[in-house]
Amino acid sequence: MNSLPEWLTSEENSRQLAAMLAPSSSFSLEALAAESRAVTLRRFGRTMTLYAPLYLSNYCSSGCAYCGFASDRQTSRRRLEPREIEKELIAMKKLGISDVLLLTGERTASAGFDYLLACVKIAAGQMQRVAVEAFPMSVEEYRELALGGCTGITIYQETYNRENYEKLHRWGPKKNFFDRLETPARALEAGIKTVGLGVLLGLSEPVEDALRLYRHVRHLSRTYWRAGITVSFPRMRPEPGGYTPPFSIDDHFLARMIFAFRIALPDTELVLSTRESPAFRDGMAGLGITRMSIESRTTVGGYHDTSHNEKGQFDVYDNRTAKEFCNALQKQNIEPVFKNWEPVYNGPSSAASA
Ligand code: SF4
């Protein structure tokens, strides 16, 4: 594949979203917020599902210009060993967390597929739900992960602008735009139940990236209609390499994007991480966002063992404890949900065996 697929570029099915996101949009932010709030309430009630990330390793062979783990960043590198993972998971469980996202950098000899699979199996023995944000894999590898207890993967395209993608991904396997674009479909083909998509806001012109992200979601949900798809809205945060993004995304645009996605994709879980400020996160709860991370550490481990001083992938903004965050939700009459999943469902979906 050398040119962008038609499903990604066709404007035909994204006119409603385009109208809501246009700089000269006739939809006021207040009107979008009211509609988004009503849709959220109708489809999800007053609930917020909560998860936490666990960085397994900060080894990486890629050179993404915007990332604190890029292979040219000066920081010590390490990975968690099985006993350490157990301890980190126990510490997370003490905070109330039962839904974990395991993260690594790009595939390396120190943290490759076999290592990741072993980590998934350990986490599946401890947590109700295990998802992975790591390197693109083959269908066979995703099938093994699903059998090991992984129910979801997160794989952001970062930007759908090919020229910018080429410049930002300076070296390493992540340079392959099309391989990454096809990764969510491979995971769903293999029986992974949910895929998380997103763009890193600030890397490219945001409206065009948002429209292509939306078309990607539509394309996958039509092809894999049983799949769960989530959309995240990460904005660039300061990282150890000091990268400055070319586009500045203000709160007003991000709120508009969240409301527009909620209206255009009423059944899709929308996710907001601790990259955002407490005030912004509290404001978006109930208005469109239905899933949030809590207690995030962006260094390797960090829940049990806090003695290491390597740099994180990026700076966390909302540093509230799980208890503080849940109190803030409850003040808004929103119920924090730590578990809405039984591990008995953790095998691959029927797509894998079909
Ligand atoms: S974004 Fe991922 S692949 Fe790129 S440098 Fe960071 S950890 Fe590596």
From TrEMBL:
InterPro entries: Aldolase_TIM (IPR013785), BATS_dom (IPR010722), Elp3/MiaA/NifB-like_rSAM (IPR006638), rSAM (IPR007197), rSAM_sf (IPR058240), ThiH (IPR012726), ThiH/NoCL/HydG-like (IPR034428)
Radical SAM core domain boundaries: 46-275
Keyword Lyase attributed: yes
Cofactor section: [4Fe-4S] cluster; [2Fe-2S] cluster
Matches recorded under PROSITE patterns: RADICAL_SAM
BP terms from Gene Ontology: thiamine biosynthetic process
The keyword Translocase appears for this protein: no
Highest taxon in the source lineage: Bacteria
Transmembrane segments: none
Keyword line: 4Fe-4S, Iron, Iron-sulfur, Lyase, Metal-binding, S-adenosyl-L-methionine
SMART domains assigned to the protein according to its UniProt record, in alphabetical order: BATS, Elp3
Entry coiled-coil feature ranges: none
Entry GO MF terms: 4 iron, 4 sulfur cluster binding; iron ion binding; lyase activity
Database matches in SUPFAM superfamilies: Radical SAM enzymes (SSF102114)
Protein name according to UniProt: Tyrosine lyase ThiH
